[in-house]
Design goal:
The complex is a heterodimer. Chain A has a four-stranded mixed sheet. Chain A is built from three helices and four strands. In chain A, helix 1 links the parallel strand 1 and strand 2. Chain A starts with a strand and ends with a helix. By secondary structure, chain A is an alpha+beta fold. Chain B contains 16 helices and 31 strands. In chain B, the strands form ten sheets. A five-stranded parallel sheet of chain B has the order 10-7-6-18-29. In chain B, a hairpin with a 4-residue loop joins strand 8 and strand 9. In chain B, helix 12 crosses helix 13. The radius of gyration of chain B is 29 Å and the shape is globular. The chains are: A alpha+beta, B alpha/beta. Chains A and B meet through strand 1, helix 2, strand 4 and helix 3 of A and helix 4, helix 5 and strand 31 of B.
Chain lengths: ~90, ~600
């Protein structure tokens, strides 16, 4: 079974971050255990943010690869997650 | 597609002496970690960062054929690189080494310390997440890029100049961007500097003059950074040069335009509001570059379409009212931010009457009045009536160490109050009585305590108290203050001709915007945030961007210089490699899927 680990880079007061959160919550319900989402506050975990060179939020890394900066379209984000799942199956 | 081969993940627990082991059941954590999918090896060590600890990790990687490891210990900002190097030595790709911090929940004195049971629960979850993250993590393709042999320094004050000169002397091309029409920053306006009472512009001049003629330095005054993109080794920066309305290459700095200009306005920048300048002006005699600049907001030609006296008078036809902002684009390998500080505006501390009473001024304003080349040519005269004050009271910690404004200590105010007291007593008004009302006298620095003792010896009076209020006599404009003196145990009423507020240093205006432009973080007080407060004090969250001087926190000149040199050294360390490896996605940012909004 494929699995996806999403690192959701955010910060307090970020305008676009709640939209990303909402999408990921919806996908989590849909995909269950296949999807793990970790919220990374870049004001707290600056090291992780700098490893990915995240300079603006929201940003999304999927299985260790930075895929999006800014707010992606819902379909784009879902496709990226599904692509990663298929890659492993 | 074929499934990824099974991973062999090692989990290494560090006791950190008693720092972790003293607040957590490590045995329980080891047992739970063994149950996590694809974890093949779990072990603990008293100090994982020690030589023995690292040898043990390397042995385990080789003997157990581990391909990914998670070290459960302390902050990644402190030790991630230690363990990445350790893993790399044993054959593990650094990207597959992770460090997670549980020590923050267990260590004595940690602000995040929690009860052992809670720490255990939270640690279990964090380890599960980290192992899963490592298990699913794909290798980020890396690209090798060539580093530009150049740097941008933002801010032309003493820290920026020092950093810029260091890099320029090492052979890099340096662009120094300064928002004002001259380099020199606040130091040029201080008159004298503690603890030597040297003339500030005189000791600054070798740096400003050298920066002006250095073959590797380009000065961009009257300019601001508008946008930045790229990455370490190849930052693309757009700089807007605001118009001087003077052709800089034609202007000789003769000052004839200034003499003829009929418009006088208050000079808020170079005289701190204590003097006037013309609508066309040269900031001060030692300004670099010594070129005039027209203040379009006050110039009669820009406001009403009349005058043009400067144009008629200029012997080199340098006036150009048609000048427009110009955008300069540069590519640099590193950026040093040295944007300095502003003095806190004490108007909101209404109890002291600043802004309502003319004879209440700030220390920075006092520095301009004491300057023999300043607006009053060094005469200390009361703003209300131009008379010499007989008694001067200084109030420390205005807007500093104050929860209602800024909780931090501004570091330099004690020393500059002592400096001004010495200058007044020894050089300007020897008969004047001077009182300094303070909470604590903080004179930490080489020669500073002796400077304080000397100030006491020459007859300056010290009262350990913060006055509650300043009241003005409406007729004489004299001021009175009530102070509880704990040393004699009674309420003192002080009359004063002049009250001087030792105000906090705050981040310079534009700091927040610049942090957004560069993507570097601010701390809770609005200063730029360093990567680690002790061990990486001039690095930021963006590799290749460094901070120095008072934009990182209040500090005096020697400390600003030390940081500037450190920032230049950090930039040099990266640039001299010529080539560096970066994740492919950073280099080829266009491959990132931009969002639809």
């Amino acid at each position: 079974m494929g699995e996806v680990y999403v690192e959701e880079f955010m910060s307090p007061g970020c305008v676009g971050c709640p939209a990303v959160r909402e999408m990921l919550e919806e996908f989590s319900k849909e995909l269950g255990d296949k999807l793990t989402v970790e919220e990374v506050d870049i004001t707290v975990d600056t090291t992780r943010a700098s490893q990915y060179a995240v300079m603006s939020v929201p940003a999304i890394a999927i299985n260790g690869i930075l895929k999006f900066v800014n707010v992606p379209k819902k379909e784009e984000l879902k496709n990226a997650i599904l692509e990663e799942l298929e890659r492993q199956e | 597609m074929l499934p990824d081969k099974k991973k062999r993940i090692g989990v290494f627990f560090c006791h950190c002496g008693k720092n972790i082991a003293g607040g957590l059941n490590i045995e329980a954590l080891i047992e739970s970690s063994k149950q996590i999918q694809e974890v093949s090896y779990v072990v603990d060590n008293k100090f994982s960062c020690s030589e023995d600890g690292q040898v043990d990790i390397q042995k385990a990687i080789q003997e157990q054929k581990l391909d990914r490891i998670v070290v459960v210990a302390c902050s990644p900002s402190l030790h991630l690189m230690t363990f990445q190097r350790c893993g790399e030595k044993a054959g593990i790709e650094p990207q597959f080494v992770d460090l997670i911090d549980i020590r923050k929940w267990t260590m004595h004195g940690s602000p995040q310390k929690i009860a052992p049971e809670k720490a255990l629960e939270k640690s279990k979850k964090l380890i599960e997440l980290a192992v899963k993250r490592m298990r699913l993590k794909r290798l980020i393709p890396m690209a090798e890029i060539k580093t530009e042999q150049s740097a941008l320094v933002i801010g032309g004050g003493v820290a920026g100049l020092e950093a810029g000169l260091d890099l320029a002397d090492k052979g890099y091309k340096v662009h120094i961007v300064e928002r004002l029409p001259t380099i020199g920053g606040k130091m040029a306006l201080l008159y004298k500097v503690f603890p030597t009472n040297d003339c500030a512009p005189c000791i600054l001049a070798p740096k400003t003059a050298y920066a002006n003629i250095h073959p590797n330095i380009t000065l961009l005054t009257n300019s601001e950074v508008k946008s930045m993109g790229g990455y370490i080794g190849s930052f693309h920066v757009k700089i807007v040069q605001n118009p001087r309305y003077i052709e800089a290459d034609k202007c000789t700095g003769c000052g004839e335009c200034v003499e003829k200009c009929p418009v006088k306005v208050k000079d808020d920048v170079f005289s701190a509001g204590m003097g006037q300048r013309k609508a066309v002006y040269i900031p001060y005699d030692q300004a670099i570059p010594k070129k005039a600049v027209i203040d379009a907001q006050n110039c009669l030609y820009f406001r009403k379409g009349v005058c043009r006296l400067c144009e008629k008078q200029c012997p080199t036809n340098a006036i150009n009212f048609g000048q427009k902002p110009k955008t300069v684009e540069i590519k640099v390998g590193a950026i040093i931010v040295a944007t300095g500080f502003d003095e806190y505006n004490p108007t909101e501390k209404s109890e002291y009457g600043y802004g309502r009473y003319n004879n209440v001024i700030t220390q920075f304003q006092l520095a301009r009045l004491l300057d023999i080349d300043g607006p009053t040519k060094g005469q200390l005269l009361r703003p209300s009536d131009g008379k010499e004050p007989k008694r001067i009271v200084m109030i420390q910690c205005v807007g500093s160490r104050d929860v209602s404004t800024n909780p931090y200590c501004s570091n330099i105010c004690c020393m500059y109050a002592l400096k001004h007291a010495q200058i007044i007593k020894e050089m300007v008004l020897p008969e004047a009585e001077i009182y300094i009302c303070f909470i604590d006298m903080r004179t930490v620095g080489k020669g500073f305590e002796e400077y304080y003792s000397r100030t006491r010896e020459i007859g300056i009076n010290f009262i350990r108290a913060r006055p509650s209020e300043v009241i003005q006599d409406t007729e004489t404009k004299d001021l009175s203050l009530k102070v509880e003196d704990p040393e004699i145990g009674r309420l003192l009423k002080l009359e004063a001709g002049l009250v001087v507020l030792s105000c906090a240093t705050i981040p310079s205006s534009g700091t927040e915007q610049l942090s957004k432009t560069l993507g570097i973080k601010l701390d809770k007080d609005g200063f730029f945030k360093e990567m680690h407060p002790k061990l990486r004090p001039v690095e930021t969250n963006v590799r290749g961007i460094y901070i120095c001087g008072s934009d990182q926190g209040p500090k005096d000149i020697p400390n600003a210089i030390v940081q500037a040199k450190a920032a230049a050294s950090c930039a040099d360390t990266e640039l001299r490699k010529n080539k560096i490896k970066l994740p492919q996605f950073i280099v080829n940012a266009s491959k990132l899927k931009k969002g639809g909004r």
